Amino acid sequence: xxxxxxxxxxxxxxELIVLLIATLTRFWRLNYHSVWFDEAVSLAWAGADPSYTxxxxxxxxxxxxxxxxxxxxxYWQAFLEWFQQAQNDAxxxxxxxxxxxxxILGILLLVRRLRAADRGARRPVPASQADPRRGAADRxxxxxxxxxxxxxx
Length: 153
Known about the structure:
By secondary structure, the chain is mainly alpha-helical. It is built from seven helices and no strands.
């Protein structure tokens, strides 16, 4: 699609291709390995009551994941129970993969918005003002002799 104001192409294909590649790389072979130790710790926190997880993990200085991740994983695991997939390694890892894809989507949307704002700030300059060889007098707006002070109309 061509935007009339900016006069440039604003097709979503480059962003969609990046998002597709990000999705494929995050979901590719999620079940290749069994659960690793850090994933087992995350699942242990997710298996606890969300209020307990929130209360304890906010005080842990060395913990790298915020309690929001564990609470989200808790509800993801509860969602997977509906499909009898709560113990499936790939299904449990999909939560992190979805968060990664959503992060990239957010970055792409932010870049698109900043790029559009930048285009709006750089409006085309009239040719008379863009030529550096012309003097400052030539760049001033031209006035009619009738606009001079004391001129009669």
